[in-house]
């Protein structure tokens, strides 16, 4: 399903030979209807706006009436028994790509006209408007220029078997959601949609970041074998779920799950997580058009804590802003040329206290039923943290006055995901019960790299020496105050970094449930002295690429069966 240009799911690729004449007639009827529609648009534009605007539709009409174009589409229907929808998309996309590759800006923009014609024609052939992602009822791979976090959150893994986007980064929120939904995905591919039509066969290789269009039979066979092998390996790893997470020399390393949706707690339990280290609550907002009520929040938190009442559940307060902004709160959205540096996360909630207090009330009420903890995101100053804690105190007083049961001694932590927080970790350690290092944003803000921008994706690296140094700094500052430190970004879910994190003193990690078994495998295969030696050598390297290559080599030594 090609989203954003076709906006339709083409249901079939071929038709029976005995209905070819009927299908050709259906195509001719659709193209005639398109011409009638464009002619009416041409007339209205000329009457209301002037002849120069009507000329835009004249060009569209000339394209739709082009006999060569019609002949090519009909030939595919007759000679190859392509369905009219598939044949139309194939021919029009080939022309669009020709225009895009002419090297002339004016001609490249004409590709937009071809995509517009394709959309019109498909609408008449299929008789439907755009199929919403949330309403897909047949298995598809979704291809799009981009998917917003809210669109991704609405995907049903039962029917969306994978997706690929032209833009985005591997640590963008869209990519994070793909991991949470356990949907194979490749983001930031670059322009490729003009090379593919709905109905094509596609391979999404999320492990290697590849999209293979119209693969030949040997390639299909190879990938089917690989898929079966990975499935077997994952089943083997999941047997580790009930084993202890401790190093080969017996040191416990706590493993928690990162979740986006309440139902993911079941995945955490299945894979042996010792609790939920990061519950991203903003997707309560992104999944619907209505602002969630206090009861909606409360029920979502109860859904997570009830199955694991004795295990910690860290609820991060709303991290809205940047690209994560729901329709229900658009009136609060900031218009900014650089939203990542604008009003987001705890800054946003401190400016919207009604929203903030609704969530805090629900968290405090749900904490009566288990070990729920509160964590504030993107804290940049001690004042900001104290303001958030003050609001929490106000909410406690309100609940007390109303006679509503709540947890009075709830643990309060903060995310360390900006350099200022890492640099002031010794001060923050006096104010909180725990730290959680969010490496995704920490890397973005430290290296000045937009994590959703594929043009600078090669500069975004968890192995950068500056990132390792900041993590060491936070661990050292926290140790002086006996403040626990968890790493909860994608770095903690990548086995490449497991040993170096342990070597730097990390004893708690939180990752997507899917990642937990392989991380546990690495933990159980290494000793603390080995990990410390790896971290010490990594500290001597000056370039991220060298650190990555070194860690990759060490990982193969630690777990040769999985990573050779």
From TrEMBL:
GO BP terms, alphabetized: phosphoenolpyruvate-dependent sugar phosphotransferase system
Cofactor: Mg(2+)
The PEP-utilising enzyme mobile domain, residue ranges: 137-209
Catalyses which reaction(s): L-histidyl-[protein] + phosphoenolpyruvate = N(pros)-phospho-L-histidyl-[protein] + pyruvate
Pfam families in UniProt: PEP-utilisers_N, PEP-utilizers, PEP-utilizers_C
Subcellular location(s) per record: Cytoplasm
EC primary class: transferase
UniProt binding sites for phosphoenolpyruvate: 280, 316, 440-441, 451
Annotated keywords: Cytoplasm, Kinase, Magnesium, Metal-binding, Phosphotransferase system, Pyruvate, Sugar transport, Transferase, Transport
Active site residues according to the UniProt entry: 173, 488
Family: Belongs to the PEP-utilizing enzyme family.
GO cellular component: cytoplasm
Transmembrane segments: none
E.C. numbers: 2.7.3.9
GO molecular function, one term: metal ion binding
InterPro entries associated with the record: PEP-util_enz_mobile_dom (IPR008279), PEP-utilizing_PTS_enzyme (IPR050499), PEP_util_AS (IPR018274), PEP_util_C (IPR000121), PEP_util_CS (IPR023151), Phosphohistidine_dom_sf (IPR036637), PTS_EI (IPR024692), PTS_EI-like (IPR006318)
Residue span, PEP-utilising enzyme C-terminal domain: 237-526
Residues involved in Mg(2+) binding: 417, 441
Name listed for the protein in its UniProt record: Phosphoenolpyruvate-protein phosphotransferase
Function: General (non sugar-specific) component of the phosphoenolpyruvate-dependent sugar phosphotransferase system (sugar PTS). This major carbohydrate active-transport system catalyzes the phosphorylation of incoming sugar substrates concomitantly with their translocation across the cell membrane. Enzyme I transfers the phosphoryl group from phosphoenolpyruvate (PEP) to the phosphoryl carrier protein (HPr).
């Amino acid at each position: 399903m090609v989203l954003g240009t076709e906006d339709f799911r083409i249901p079939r690729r071929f038709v029976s030979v005995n209905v070819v004449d009927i299908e050709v007639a259906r195509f001719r009827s659709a193209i005639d209807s398109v011409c009638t529609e464009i002619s009416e648009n041409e007339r209205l534009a000329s009457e209301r706006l002037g002849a120069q605007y009507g000329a835009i539709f004249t060009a569209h009409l000339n394209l739709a009436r082009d006999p060569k174009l019609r002949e090519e589409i009909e030939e595919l229907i007759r000679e190859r028994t392509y369905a009219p929808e598939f044949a139309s998309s194939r021919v029009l996309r080939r022309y669009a790509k020709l225009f895009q590759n002419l090297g002339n800006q004016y001609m490249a923009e004409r590709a937009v006209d071809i995509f517009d014609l394709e959309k019109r024609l498909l609408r008449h052939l299929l008789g439907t408007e755009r199929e919403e992602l949330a309403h897909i009822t047949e298995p598809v791979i979704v291809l799009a220029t981009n998917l917003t976090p809210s669109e991704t959150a609405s995907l049903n893994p039962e029917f969306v078997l994978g997706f690929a986007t032209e833009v985005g980064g591997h640590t963008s929120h869209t990519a994070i959601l793909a991991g949470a939904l356990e949907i194979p995905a490749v983001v930031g591919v670059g322009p490729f949609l003009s090379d593919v039509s709905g109905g094509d066969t596609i391979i999404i290789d999320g492990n290697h970041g590849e999209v293979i269009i119209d693969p030949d039979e040997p390639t299909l066979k190879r990938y089917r074998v690989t898929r079966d092998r990975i499935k077997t390996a994952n089943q083997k790893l999941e047997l580790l779920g009930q084993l202890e997470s401790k190093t080969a020399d017996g040191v416990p390393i706590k493993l928690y799950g990162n979740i986006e949706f309440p139902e993911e707690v079941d995945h955490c339990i299945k894979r042996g997580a010792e609790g939920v280290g990061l519950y991203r609550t903003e997707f309560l907002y992104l999944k619907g058009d209505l602002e969630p009520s206090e009861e909606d929040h409360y029920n979502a938190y109860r859904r997570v804590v009830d199955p694991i009442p004795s295990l910690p559940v860290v609820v991060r307060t709303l991290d809205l802003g940047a690209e994560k902004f729901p329709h229900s709160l658009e009136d609060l959205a900031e218009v900014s040329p650089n939203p990542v540096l604008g009003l987001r996360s705890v800054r946003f909630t401190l400016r919207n206290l009604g929203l903030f207090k609704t969530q805090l009330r629900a968290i405090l009420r749900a904490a009566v039923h288990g070990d729920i903890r509160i964590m504030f995101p993107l804290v940049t100053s001690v004042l900001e943290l104290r303001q958030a804690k003050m609001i929490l105190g106000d909410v406690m007083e309100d609940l007390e006055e109303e006679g509503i049961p709540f947890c009075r001694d709830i643990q309060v932590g903060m995310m360390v995901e900006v350099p200022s927080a890492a640099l002031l970790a010794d001060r923050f350690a006096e104010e909180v019960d725990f730290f959680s290092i969010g490496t995704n944003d920490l890397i973005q803000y430290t290296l000045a790299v937009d994590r959703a921008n594929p043009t600078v994706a090669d500069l975004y690296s968890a192995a950068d020496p500056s990132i390792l140094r900041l993590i060491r700094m936070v661990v050292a500052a926290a140790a002086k105050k006996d403040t626990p430190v968890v790493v909860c970004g994608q770095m903690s879910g990548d086995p490449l970094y497991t040993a170096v994190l342990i070597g730097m003193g990390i004893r708690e990690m939180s990752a997507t449930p899917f990642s937990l078994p392989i991380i546990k495998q690495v933990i159980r295969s290494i000793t603390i002295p080995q990990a410390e030696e790896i971290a010490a050598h990594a500290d001597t390297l000056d370039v991220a690429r060298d650190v990555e290559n070194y860690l990759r080599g060490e990982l193969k030594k630690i777990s040769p069966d999985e990573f050779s």
